[in-house]
Amino acid sequence: MKFNVDDCDIVELPIAHTEKGNMTVLENKLNIPFNIRRIYYLYDVPMNAERGGHSHYELQQYVVAASGSFTFVLDDGTNKKEVFLNHPNKALHIKPGIWREMKDFSSGSICLVLASMEYTEDDYIRDYEQFLNYRKNG
């Protein structure tokens, strides 16, 4: 199945409010539609730097602005969509086959990524022309 940028939604994550602060809990197959196989986070990204610049054949991700803010540019080969993340109780669900770029990192931002697969270079499309060919021809 080929997904498009409109299939990549912002998901409201649950918040447990207490007098001592807030907590958000994410659990496999409960409030995340895939099993988390890898977790990583980006931080100390210079304000003018851009990250990403790739797509995945199979990998799904939940991306959370654990601190600060940044913008995702999503591209399905036909349409583009910008998504601004700036709150730790909202996740961007990125589906397979979507090109992603990240920009506009605020100072002190932390980008938390929950991934459906362990790292494998074979799942990456790092060349944009190859990505467009994949989207067109499968």
Quick recap:
This protein is mainly β. The chain contains one helix and twelve strands; from the N terminus they run E-E-E-E-E-E-E-E-E-E-E-E-H. The longest helix has 10 residues, at 128-137.
Q: Roughly how much helix do the residues carry, as a percent range?
A: under 10%
CATH superfamily: Jelly Rolls
Major pleated sheet: 5 strands, antiparallel
Quote the beta fraction.
Answer: 35-45%
Task: Give the name of the CATH architecture.
Answer: Sandwich
Unreliably modeled segments:
none
Describe the structure.
- With 138 residues, this protein is mainly β.
- The protein has a single domain, classed as Jelly Rolls (Sandwich).
- The chain contains one helix and twelve strands.
- The chain has one helix at residues 128-137, and strands spanning 10-12, 16-18, 21-23, 38-43, 51-56, 61-67, 70-75, 80-85, 90-94, 99-103, 110-115, 124-125.
- The strands form three sheets. Strands 1-9-6-11-4 form a five-stranded antiparallel beta sheet, with no helix packed on it. The chain has a five-stranded antiparallel beta sheet with strand order 8-7-10-5-12. Strands 2-3 form a two-stranded antiparallel ribbon.
- A hairpin with a 2-residue loop joins strand 2 (16-18) and strand 3.
- The longest helix is centred in the C-terminal third of the chain and has 10 residues, at 128-137.
- It is globular.
- It starts with 9 loop residues before the first strand and ends with a helix.
- The model has no long low-confidence stretch (mean pLDDT 95).
